[in-house]
Amino acid sequence: MDRIFNASWIKAARQPGEAVVDFIKDFTVKPFPVKAELQISALGVYSCTINGKNVTSSVLNPGWTDYNKRIQYQTFDVTSLIGKENTIVIGTGIGWRFHKWYDLSSKTVTHKTVAVIASLSLTYENGEETVIYTDSSWLYKENKVRYNNMYNGETIDYTFRAKAPHPVSVLAYTKDTLIPQEGEYITEQEIIRGKKLYTTPEGDTVIDFGQELTGYISFYVKGKKGDTVKIRHFEMPDKNGNVYTENLRSAKQLLTVVCDGNSHLIKPVYTFYGFRYIAIEGMQVDSADEFTAIVVHSDMKRTGYFRCSDEMINQLFHNIIWGQKGNFLDVPTDCPQRDERLGWTGDAQVFCKVASYNFNVEKFFRKWMGDLRAMQKPSGTIPSFVPTKFDDDGGSSAWADVATILPWQMYLTYGNRELLEENYMLMKKWVDFMRKWALKKKPDEGISTNPYLYEGHWHFGDWLALDLPDKEAVEGATEKDIIGCAFFYYSTSLLIKASEVLGKDCKYYKNLYKNIKRAFIRKYIGDDGRISCNTQTACVLALHFGLYNEKEPLAKQLTELVNSYGHLTTGFVGTPYLLHVLSDIGETELAYKLLRRDEFPSWCYPITQGATTMWERWNGYKPDGTFATADMNSFNHYAYGAVGDWIYERMCGIRQKEGTAGFTDIVFAPETTQQFSFAEASIETANGTVSSKWENTASGIDFTFTVPQNTQAVAIISGKTYKLTTGINKISV
Ligand code: BGC
Fold first, then answer.
1. Ranges of the chain whose pLDDT falls below 70
2. Is ligand 1 within 6 A of the CB of residue 463?
């Protein structure tokens, strides 16, 4: 068992409000250990130094899990930091535990009590080992960070003088929930210098970093003793160019520094912000580059790239990448700025495919699937966001379906059967939940009693779709039961596929699958073959999941709807599949038209308004210069970035052969257009880089495909199949 399990949880004898607590231990070592290893975790977020040097370059440890069920601990090699006389300091902030939607149910600690647990083992050449554990011999003092909160920011007071250290209290808190680090560490990834310094019409001093990002700023504070510098972080100025913070809801996103007359390098440690702009008060600023923004996210390796002849689409791809950077912080969050920042299951489900092409997210999602398993209810349903403290039964279609869609997609991208094995019960229990629900007879509630339809459950619907007269309405016009039944069918299909890969009996589910389809068609598809709910999303789901007898009438219904509106109207549920379906029904040019459209509403409209990340809503900032309701209007929400998987798979044509996983068998089938002169994409797979490029020439189209080692590949161009070989393949037509 790891050493940390012999240590004790320690806390301040009196928690100093919302100030950061430093836990301190001085120790002397016999010269010199050949190895020193620190294991450490916290109820809160910690930063740790030994003799003034950071023990890790990662930040915001121990990350975010459902702390009632699991808390990650980290192991660091600290050999090079150890001297003869040593001091270890663990600064601990409240971190994600403050969350108004998250709390510890334990009576021994409130959600503002911070605590740490650690072991430091010192091993000598002869094999002898001594271990220092957190215990009652440790001391604590208050840190100059007088206030810390993930949503509201930090207050750093350089005039604060801590009292002499006090003995800590040992906390009787369980160690059963400790688990070794599972996810990717969150690290500082990029530094962006302030780009533009200006004064707003209302007189605020503002710096624009030119990129919406997640992280924090760094700068040298200047000021007389007692001066207070206040920095607000925000995403967008309003139409008059003034600071706009209403969409942050209750999140303050503030950094406050109280000066002591000396210059100090400022960088928050116990919080993060979602922003592109800062407004500075209380300090003279002469140049934008006095401030830098530090981008933080889970340390995922970038694997996917794309470029084409159209700068608008290149910017769209950039925004998709930044939507991912901004929201992959140990947990896949909906947004990084307002008082939410939660692991919304629907958003993650929608985006997970393109996420897995853009970056290697196998480890990141493997950890979060552990969170999902830990939070799945005994009934099989999944809360709407994870982690959560709500006693939330969730169960909304397209949100809870993360239970099947995410493990299956991770298997497809990485070809790792273990991901399916680990999550098989997660998938199965969710499908069983829907089946049990469908079997419940609820005639009193007027709910259909068909045992194969997942109806009558509460759902979010086609979130933020634009097909209701009220464009601020959130649920869209697509009947929720249609969404529920379609996803019941889809999730069952994925469970069958997973069962087949794992060699598990799935006769029951195959039968169920047939019956859902039959019941769906009987109830929702008319004699004319059209779906009863006349929305783009209803058609898209029926077509994408195969819920029809004949494709043509539905295809016609969909194209009529798109053409009559002249644009998409889909929300979170329909948008990820819309262009794929248009490609499938031979409407690739229409798909390109939607992709390239830049009037409202469209993927590119936000770019005409200067967007550098994906927006939550099609109408976040309207052509008339007004914002959508501040209640729900984030400018860094990755869900609509799901269109990126169409860019890789259809525009550039990098697809896997049906029935294979891990990019061992590739089918290049680019869908070219005359609208652009070239497009190219690459994905780094386990076998190496796969890439595809097409270019319109005077005489036709030139294709270049790169096939890595140990990979089978064909190209399908204008209906003709070409067998490809390892290395670069060129085809001209
Ligand atoms: C979140 C979404 C989420 C939704 C649930 C919102 O507040 O930001 O992205 O999926 O609630 O419908």
1. 98-111, 389-390, 441-449
2. yes
